[in-house]
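Ops channel
N.P.: pipeline sanity check, posting one input/output pair.
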């Protein structure tokens, strides 16, 4: 046997056995995989399995991929293979209720005409003149269609959600009815400041994929009976009659999701532009909040030094810490509520604070909160804010935690016990209400969570935060459809360097202290120069006295010294980060192999000792 193993024939037999094993495994074990990612990104979620099990009528999926035209595109072909494998897994789990057809649309073929008929995106290949198809179309027994025009590499992290959303839409022909009243231009339109057209916000496009939207007027008298969830975004224009209608809608069991704001930065309405102050950008729900047991000050904004975002100040300038724009991580959201549990990162811009009223009958359940390094400031400060770091001047945390979003449930009474003029309340109380309140509207704008790119005329969103997922999760939850919630936000491949971020924050605080000293010295020197020039002959202003020259020289010396200190702080920041990187290299390159080698050596020594024993 040993001679055979070491002979040429033996090596040839081993090679053939190895090839046979690989060929057999590629055929027999095509669905076998081991997912070692932390969030199980490559494993079908329970929500997807629930959606596939709930299919009542057959669904047919047509996966179009130009296999021949993409023969030189390795990354795209690998992605296409992953899409195909996941679709086959969907077909297997659905148990015959979902049929998959894989099509390679050749040029000038019926398959290409079919892809064009479905509305799939064709990408021209300049080197060959062919067209590349890489999309999905689905149909149900009612001849309804849903498509994914093109699978872009940038959205690979959202692959399972997009596939599950398409299947869910086909399996539920009747989409939930959402009533929408918005005081912000989420539907696009013309920007009155720039005169340029604005595209619809990405969140609106996502809502349209899953729900049927009815746009309602802010002066309505009654919420239609077919509305399942009422969505209010910056409802500053609601009339008293409309507030009364919302009150009755909630008491009769209607579910409400409302985004209010003490300072809506995206408000470009005429009254906001004319007033120019914070009052024109604030919104609330009048007496409804108090009736539901919530206290909210529409003149106060939450700032937080621990969660402040780093924002650009322009070319050649260091980034600024904006403590009114916040990044909420897992520690700042409710990890048990189905709306916020799957999310990773959310952003808030000049958000307000929601507080429970003591003795209220409703249950106040916080969803998104600040840290203890926060405080409330007047919203008017943001109306004239030029430098975000000016918010740090004189800042002192009040050691309280403020809530940006909350769920309200439990018994509640009407805010209009006497009704309105000529209108008596049909309902005066309810055993249980279902309301979600969010004290920020800017989190829905594209700039706070997504980058939209144009891909051959198709708008491709690339989310970097989960704000859109938060809105859709809330609507799914309130409309009673929670299967997609567990699928959403599973594509978070971003793993931030939190230690590096902490080092940057500490160095920036030191940097800012030095910068403030420089500004104070500059102001003091300019004041002294002004005093000296007041006693100077106006005809001799161009001639500097010795005292002026000494003051200027002292200022220049101080300025050079402070600049040296700023360079030292920046160097120390880079040195700390570089030292951390060196330690990581030592651990990954040297320590881990050393430990493995020592482990193998110890295993060998123990085995040898046992054999001797």
């Amino acid at each position: 046997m040993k001679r055979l193993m070491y002979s040429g024939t033996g090596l040839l037999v081993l090679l053939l056995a190895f090839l046979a094993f690989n060929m057999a495994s590629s055929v027999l074990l095509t669905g076998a995989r081991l997912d070692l990612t932390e969030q199980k990104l490559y494993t079908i979620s329970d929500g997807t399995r629930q959606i596939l099990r709930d299919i009542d009528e057959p669904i047919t999926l047509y996966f179009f991929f130009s296999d021949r035209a993409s023969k030189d595109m390795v990354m795209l072909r690998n992605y296409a293979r992953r899409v195909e494998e996941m679709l086959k897994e969907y077909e297997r789990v659905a148990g015959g209720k979902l049929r998959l057809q894989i099509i390679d649309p050749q040029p000038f073929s019926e398959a290409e005409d079919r892809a064009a008929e479905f509305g799939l995106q064709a990408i021209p290949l300049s080197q060959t003149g062919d067209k590349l198809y890489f999309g999905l179309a689905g149909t149900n027994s009612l001849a309804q269609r849903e498509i994914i025009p093109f699978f872009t590499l940038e959205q690979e992290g959202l692959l399972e959600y997009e596939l599950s959303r398409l299947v869910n839409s086909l399996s539920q022909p009747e989409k939930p009815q959402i009533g929408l009243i918005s005081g912000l231009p989420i539907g696009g339109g013309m920007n009155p400041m720039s005169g340029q057209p604005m595209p619809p916000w990405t969140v609106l496009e996502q809502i349209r994929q899953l729900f049927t939207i009815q746009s309602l007027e802010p002066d309505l008298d009654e919420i239609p009976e077919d509305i399942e969830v009422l969505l209010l975004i910056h409802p500053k224009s609601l009339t008293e009659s409309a507030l009364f209608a919302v009150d009755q809608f909630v008491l009769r069991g209607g579910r409400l999701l409302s985004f209010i704001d003490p300072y809506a930065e995206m408000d470009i309405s005429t009254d906001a532009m004319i007033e120019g102050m914070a009052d024109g950008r604030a919104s609330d729900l009048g007496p409804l909040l108090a009736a539901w047991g919530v206290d909210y000050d529409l003149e106060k904004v939450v700032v937080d030094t621990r969660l402040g975002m780093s924002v650009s100040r322009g070319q050649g300038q260091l980034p600024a810490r904006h403590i009114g724009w916040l990044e909420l991580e897992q520690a700042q959201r409710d990890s048990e509520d189905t709306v916020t549990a799957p999310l990773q990162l959310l952003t808030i811009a000049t958000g307000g604070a929601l507080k429970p009223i003591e003795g209220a009958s409703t249950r106040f359940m916080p969803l998104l909160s600040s840290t203890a390094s926060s405080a409330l400031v007047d919203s008017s400060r943001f109306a004239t804010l030029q430098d975000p770091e000016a918010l740090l001047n004189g800042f002192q945390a009040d050691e309280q935690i403020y809530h940006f979003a909350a769920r309200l449930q439990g018994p509640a009474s009407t805010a209009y016990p006497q009704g309105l003029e000529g209108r008596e309340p049909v309902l005066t109380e309810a055993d249980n209400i279902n309301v979600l309140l969010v004290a920020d509207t800017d989190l829905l704008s594209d700039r706070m969570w997504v980058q939209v790119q144009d891909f051959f005329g198709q708008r491709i969103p690339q989310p970097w935060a989960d704000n859109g997922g938060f809105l859709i999760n809330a609507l799914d939850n309130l409309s009673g459809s929670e299967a997609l919630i567990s699928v959403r936000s599973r594509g978070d491949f971003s793993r931030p360097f939190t230690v590096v971020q902490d080092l940057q924050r500490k160095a920036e605080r030191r940097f800012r202290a030095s910068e403030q000293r420089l500004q104070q010295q500059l102001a003091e020197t300019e004041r002294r120069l002004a005093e000296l020039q007041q006693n100077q002959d106006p005809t001799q202003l161009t001639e500097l006295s010795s005292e002026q020259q000494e003051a200027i020289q002292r200022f220049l010396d101080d300025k050079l010294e402070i600049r040296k200190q700023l360079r030292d702080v920046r160097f120390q920041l880079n040195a700390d980060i570089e030292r951390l990187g060196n330690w990581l290299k030592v651990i990954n390159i040297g320590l881990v192999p050393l430990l493995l080698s020592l482990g193998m050596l110890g295993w060998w020594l123990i085995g040898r000792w046992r054999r001797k024993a």
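N.P.: looks fine end to end. The chain has three domains: 30-166, 174-296+353-369+401-480, 497-532+546-590.
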